[in-house]
Amino acid sequence: MIFNKRRGMRSVMTTALLACLAFVALAIWGWKLPIAAALQYLVICLLMVVVLIAAAALVVGLFKFVQRLCRRR
């Protein structure tokens, strides 16, 4: 059962990535979106993901720190 879930998750992720790539390719071809603009959007999205991951790590670290402070008392 566990192995079937992993295989299913992998196929869903592959399908989602292919759909996203197809959408971007159609935007570049159909709407004549400049490739430079598409790359700028990609960089902006990657930076936003990095910021979100860093914020989540900071919050988790803060919770762990508060838990340690509470246990010492």
Short description:
The protein has 73 residues and is mostly helical. The chain is 92% helix and 0% strand. The longest helix is centred in the last third of the chain and has 38 residues, at 35-72.
Written description of the protein model:
The chain has 73 residues and is an all-alpha fold. It has two helices and no strands. The protein has helices at 2-30, 35-72. The longest helix is centred in the last third of the chain and has 38 residues, at 35-72.
**Proportion in β-strands:** under 5%
| Overall residue-averaged pLDDT value | 89
Poorly predicted regions are none
Order of helices and strands: HH
Shape: elongated
**What is the tally of helical segments?**
2
| Structural class estimated from helices and strands | mainly alpha
- How does the major sheet shape up? none
Report how far the terminal alpha carbons are from each other.
45 Å
Helix content: over 70%
Radius of gyration: 20 Å
Give the number of DSSP strands: 0
